[in-house]
Amino acid sequence: MDASDEGGDAPSDDELAEVDLDLLHREDLARLQGVLDEQARLRNLLDAVVAIASEITLDGVPTRIVRAAGSLVGARYAALGILSEGPERALRTFVHDGMDSDVVAQIGDWPTGHGVLGLLVDEPRPLRLRDVAEHPASYGFPEHHPAMTSFLGVPVRTRDHVYGYLYLTDKEGGQDFTEVDESVAVALAAAAGVAIENASLYEEAERRQAWLSATVEITSLISDDTPTDRALQAIADRARSVSGADVAWVVSGSDPRELHLEVVAGAPVDREAMHALPMEKSLASLVVRTGVPVSVDDLATDPRAVDPSSLPGWPRLGPMMALPLRSGSGIEGVISLAWTPERIDAFRRLDPALPTSFAEQAALALRVARSREDRKRMSLLEDRDRIARDLHDLVIQRLFGVGLGLETTARLVPDDESAHRVRQAIVDIDDTIKDIRRTIFALGTLEGSTDLQTEVEKLVERAAATMKLRPRLRLEGPVRSTVPTALAPDLLAVVGEALTNVSRHAHASTVEVRVVVDHDTLEVSVADDGVGMPSEVLESGLHNLRERAACHGGELRVDSGSGAGTTVTWRVPLVERD
């Protein structure tokens, strides 16, 4: 009996050969398809790497990397985090793919760079996990975060610098990530590192170009005969714009004890409050003393700093750098750049050498502008000196000669009325000579001067605007050079108070102010032809003037009569009492 009789017809050899051939054919097709898929994936990887590495900016690069990585390794979720400068591991950029926007909104803040993600920075090498939650360094997922199992993470780096990390989770089909997936992710991360480095170099080149352009602009502006105050403002404006700082300001002065906050960019200007800041105990003072730039991470916590955040309308400031405005003749001042605490990353990305070089060039240009202004002042003073000599040597001498002739004529005129008129003309000539001499003194003072004689003249000018008449001012003797500094505020107070009383109560048509320095005595008198003072009057302002005179060992005298006008005389010695 053969086998066909017991169990039916057995497959022939031809049939067996056909079955084996079909099986081999299917296996070959599977292998071929795998090779084609692998080639397609490698081709897509190559295209992605070439496209990413060719970028010189980061615009759109993170999104392209994340989508390419998720597609090439078959991951449900993919994310790329780029770190900011500094030790906090704060993220500068975070791009993800695979999550709905509603889920992202519910999760809230970006990852903080701890746990498994922190390992990719602390130990920059690829990490593959079957279940990320089982790793000892895992912190778990925040609320509303979707569950994730398989994990593949690689650092984004070039040489020894780690820029961030790329990670993928949940391999499709519930499988684990393979070595090939790891190789793909490493290649993409390497391309991302090159792109980030290229972008950083490109941004650095643009920043250098911007600082160079700002320096050229400042130099050009100052060469156009720009006043110093406008030049300082331009320096602050350009430095703030190019550095990306929130506020910039310039402190002027070469003496650490006499510094003033002059101009501000990016915040309201309150000059009275600015000048009240104790700059002699500030970082600017330290920079002026040492000549070395200073940077701090937080103005509020640095004991050496004066925080201008207290000024009205200023933002809360955190990091700051102070740079010397140094020229060949020394330090002209300090320029400071400050950022809000939230923008500390912008502060850390700024190379201090760039604003330092800008400050040195700006200081040189500023020095040129100030030298030009000094030359203008000297030229103006020379012109005024020439005019003053002509007034003294020609005009005054001629008037003096005319006066002497009139004195001789007055003695020869028999008519009393005519003689009186001649004598009055002589008095007028004497007054004119005194006015010219006062003008000669004034010619020696430039506009903006704060000497005592100029301040008295300003008081009289302001009173003229209030009283609708012009008080006559007489300055006799060396008022500018002889009156001690301690007496100056009281002298101005006496003139101001007396003129105020005339304006309020006298109803006068003429007012004369005399300031006389005679040997060792200063006398101030204000006389009017008004209604006079009543016999019983409550002294308030006059009482203050009496006390001011008494403080210097002097006296106040008031001469007045009904309808006869009033004369207030304030007389003090020029020698200070112990």
From TrEMBL:
One term of GO molecular function: kinase activity
Stored Pfam families: GAF_2, HATPase_c, HisKA_3
Entry-linked InterPro entries: GAF, GAF-like_dom_sf, HATPase_C_sf, HATPase_dom, His_kinase_dom, Sensor_HK_TwoCompSys, Sig_transdc_His_kin_sub3_dim/P
Name of the featured protein: GAF domain-containing sensor histidine kinase
Domain Histidine kinase: 491-576
Keywords annotated in UniProt: Kinase, Transferase, Two-component regulatory system
Domain of life: Bacteria
